[in-house]
Amino acid sequence: RERRWPTAELVTCSFNLSMPIVCCVRRLEPRISTKRISETQCDQYPTATGLSDHIFNGVVAQFGEFPHMAALGYGDVWNGTTPSPFRCAASLISSRFLLTAAHCLRERPTFVRLGVLELQPARVIDEPLDIEIRTAIPHPDYNPVTYRNDIALLELDKPALDWPFVDPACLYTKPIASASASASGNGAEMLPVLSVQGWGTVLPGDTEPAPRLLKANVTVLEREACIASLPRTRRNPAGLHDGQLCALGRNERNETVADTCPGDSGGPLELILAGGRHYLVGITSNGYACGSPIPGIYTEISYYLDWIESIVWPSADVTTTGQPLLPATGTTQAGATGSGT
Fold first, then answer.
1. What domains lie within the chain, and their CATH numbers?
2. Per the database record, which ranges form the Peptidase S1 domain (predicted)?
């Protein structure tokens, strides 16, 4: 049976002598991107060249190794002579926003320091990028007693752009905690090794922060094993809350060889993939004695993606376009400023 086709859509592909050969146009459905906005943003980022609150038994990081790493300053911005107190860390996730722990906002941080290994630099190569914090945004359901929803966003007063060793990290969008059991069912840990970083204390009982940024490797524990290992306290009456995971570095003799300590709070628990791209899996939240056999507790970022994306990239629509989007320019959720306490 003859099929009629709109003449405006007919395309002449070739000729057979004087007779045109017509090709029928295939009707294509528009492509719909299934990526989250955080994943779309990640595609644009360059690749990189335990828990009271610091890194126990860590090693010194190298310049440019963790370009998203930031320290939170609680005094005046550095004037070249007077040291500023730093008590927490954070991770740059766009040109204007950082992720940290909500409990780091008990006292309001005033600025962030980026692009350094040493918090009190003495050499030209260590010159810091200090940017004032415009807005601190704790999660609206953060509980300062139980540390539930211990996550916060910091909006900078100006973009962190065009500075050596400063680049944002990607957000890991998959729930690691739900996949932590071994595929074989024998309880063996099959997750990749993750990295933690910070300027926190180096040994249990220390009060002074590490002079340089430290890093260490830890492994996420299967959720049920983690819950069984945690003492029941007012902070964790049932073990882990939703949106939390735990991790610890141990050797073959089951000895604790790496942990986060005081001063590391708010810093990243991250996965580094081939090519050097950093994916933030968690935020250092809380724990027990630094370097103890009890695992540290981290806020799991994938659990809070909707909240993060609604603030950092509020106008993005990834259901209709797969085109690259510009970094966030500082739009802030109204009325979200607070101390988190």
1. 46-312 (2.40.10.10)
2. 55-313
